[in-house]
Design goal:
Blueprint lengths: L33 E2 L2 E2 L11 H9 L5 H18 L7
Antiparallel strand pairs: 1-2
């Protein structure tokens, strides 16, 4: 099972919403590594940007993978709605 990312880039365009991503913010809420809708350093991206690895290392003892994905999908949908992104899961 893997997180069903649509590669819309909305999470990377709203870093100002969480202080955890402060060092990645280029100053306007967008990740300094975002290129189009994709990460320019995808294979070497920070742990916080790797949903599945982040779950395994930080959240597996707190919640199920299904709960974790659901929480992430809820935030994703809110970001997409905020920006009127048109694709649905």
């Amino acid at each position: 099972m893997m997180f069903p990312c649509q590669k819309c880039g909305m999470c990377c365009r709203n870093l100002q919403l969480s202080s955890l991503y402060r060092e990645l913010d280029r100053g306007d809420g967008t990740c300094k590594y975002l290129s189009g809708n994709l990460c320019s350093r995808y294979d070497d991206r920070p742990l916080l940007c790797r949903v599945d690895d982040c779950y395994t290392l930080l959240f597996k003892d707190v919640m199920s993978i299904e709960q974790y994905y659901q929480l992430n999908l809820e935030i994703c949908k809110k970001l997409q709605k905020k920006t009127e992104y048109k694709e649905d899961y």
